[in-house]
Amino acid sequence: MPVTFLEPTAERGIDLEPYELFIDTSGPITVGLISNAFPDGTEFMHKLESELAAIMPQATFRHYQKPNVAAVTDEQVDVISQECDAVLAAWGH
């Protein structure tokens, strides 16, 4: 019986678009870091803060912890958007 090898790489479905930062990071900025409820999520966000602080010394960071894997509520979005200029969220395991 012959062996058939399958190539798991898919064709590109959409063109890649380069990401362009839309916020001025040259001056003081407050960055929110939202950790999900997965193990080590908070530890990951603290490590991310450390890395970002090294390249953005003008930034301050605020940490937020989601209590579970549900989406951030509208009320949480309101609070975070009032307290931060930019937000990064971690999802996954």
Q: What would the principal axes of the Cα set say about the shape?
A: extended
**Low-pLDDT segments:** none
Task: Please state the oligomeric state of the protein chains shown.
Answer: single chain
The radius of gyration computed from the alpha-carbon positions, rounded to a whole number of angstroms, is 19 Å
Relative strand content: 15-25%
Helix-residue proportion: 25-40%
The overall pLDDT, averaged over residues, is: 87
Strand order of the largest sheet: 2-1-3
Number of helices: 2
- H/E element order: EHEHE
> Would you tell me the structural class of the helices and strands?
alpha/beta
The largest sheet is: 3 strands, parallel
The end-to-end span amounts to 40 Å
Strand count: 3
Question: Which key features would you list for this structure?
Answer:
alpha/beta; three-stranded parallel sheet; 93 residues
Summarize the structure.
Helices cover about 25% and strands about 20% of the residues. It is of the alpha/beta class and about 90 residues long. Helix 1 (about 40-55) links the parallel strand 1 and strand 2 (about 60-65).
Can you offer a commentary on this structure?
This protein has 93 residues and is an alpha/beta fold. The chain has a domain at 29-89. 27% of the residues lie in helices and 19% in strands. Strands 2-1-3 form a three-stranded parallel sheet, sandwiched between helices. Helix 1 links the parallel strand 1 (29-35) and strand 2 (59-65). The longest helix has 15 residues, at 41-55. The termini are far apart.
